[in-house]
Amino acid sequence: MTLDIRLIRESWSLVEPVADQVTLDFYSRLFAENPRIRELFPPAMDLQRDRLFGALTQVVLNLEDTEGVREYLGQLARDHRKYGVRPEHYPALGHCLIAAMRAGAHGVWQPAYDQAWAAAYDLIAEVMIQAADQDAVTAPPAWIGTVVGHEMRTPDIAVLTVEPNHPYPFRAGQYTTVQTALWPRVWRAYSIANAPRHDNRIVLHVRAIPGGWVSTALVKHTRPGDTILLGPPRGTLSLEQATTSHLVFIAGGTGLAPLKALIEESVWMPERPAIDLFYGVRRAADAYDTEALNNLRMQHRRLRIVQAVSDEPGPGYGQTAIDALEYHRIIPSGDVFVCGSQQMVRVTSDRLVRLGVPAGRIHTEYTPDAPVPVG
Ligand SMILES: NC(=O)C1=CN([C@@H]2O[C@H](COP(=O)(O)OP(=O)(O)OC[C@H]3O[C@@H](n4cnc5c(N)ncnc54)[C@H](O)[C@@H]3O)[C@@H](O)[C@H]2O)C=CC1
């Protein structure tokens, strides 16, 4: 079966401006026609809605890159095993998706679009079902993680150490998704703050954010001995993305987590890269991992750490991490990794480009389907 990329893009451009409406309509149809499928989704659907359109956008934009799309869909399928998605659900999803798009592009939708999308959807479903089946041979849909450590580092930041019940095959820089018993079917993403270890444990840095259901449960209502569910590891942030041996890491708040994992990994590399870490916090008291960072500095002689405090007065204060980088007159000649809030990542990346860093050398986690992890 061949894909009519032109028809898919053309029809996509009609529904994109009404994405919110189409997504709402899609879920309304799906749940009305298939009440059992509703049970797979969380009570509040806000984040889920954004993800659906984000994922489809990724596919539509990259249709020529067959291998890339297959890999992306494979990852999506492995991740969806934790929701309980099964092969028999796919036809209903496809049917409702096309119906919602047709309704959204009311009046200008052509019958040929139906055929183009049906063919594309069949292919998407086939790739996803195959990938999920293959994954089921070696991996559970989700891991049960026992919390073996829970340290309150500030009144609202906890560092959790979690022991998965099966080998957890992640790479430094990746993130996991977490569900707590308090919020069934609600999953949130958290970067893993360590490189893989022999004891199979992972460390998460979690700030309880106001209104953050999962983050508040993890920080305030979780104790050693409790269990949580972990989805499969995801994300592409990796030292392998670097093409140079001088790395600049720019972290904001708990955005430190994945960069710390990369630093840990680099300690074991035969040729350690030189790393400048610019770490931004709002208040000095928010620097929740100073001791561990100092330990890493002892092990990694080519690691330099500059801390910036943005929201407090005082000598050397009043700076974000990127301000500090400019203040120290470091013009990155190598690769730069940026992790923090979406706003911070965007502002920092723009400033790096203005400083002359090629966009291809700026590495961030943000992709449309995988928003920077939030609580
Ligand atoms: N892979 C990733 O990129 C990860 C991202 N995160 C995200 O990092 C964020 C951390 O939040 P918090 O710990 O509450 O710290 P925060 O975002 O409140 O502040 C941390 C630092 O970022 C700076 N900052 C905030 N907004 C900025 C902006 N628009 N431009 C420049 N600098 C800005 C602050 O001044 C401060 O120095 C969360 O949004 C979390 O989701 C967390 C883990 C991993």
Automatic annotation (TrEMBL):
It catalyses: 2 nitric oxide + NADH + 2 O2 = 2 nitrate + NAD(+) + H(+); 2 nitric oxide + NADPH + 2 O2 = 2 nitrate + NADP(+) + H(+). Residues 1-133 form the Globin domain. Its cofactor is FAD; heme b. Belongs to the globin family. In the C-terminal section; belongs to the flavoprotein pyridine nucleotide cytochrome reductase family. This is nitric oxide dioxygenase. The lineage of its organism: Bacteria, Bacillati, Actinomycetota, Actinomycetes, Streptosporangiales. SUPFAM superfamilies: Ferredoxin reductase-like, C-terminal NADP-linked domain, Globin-like, Riboflavin synthase domain-like. One of its GO terms (molecular function) is oxygen carrier activity. The keyword Signal does not apply. Keywords: 2Fe-2S, Heme, Iron, Iron-sulfur, Metal-binding, NAD, NADP, Oxygen transport, Transport.
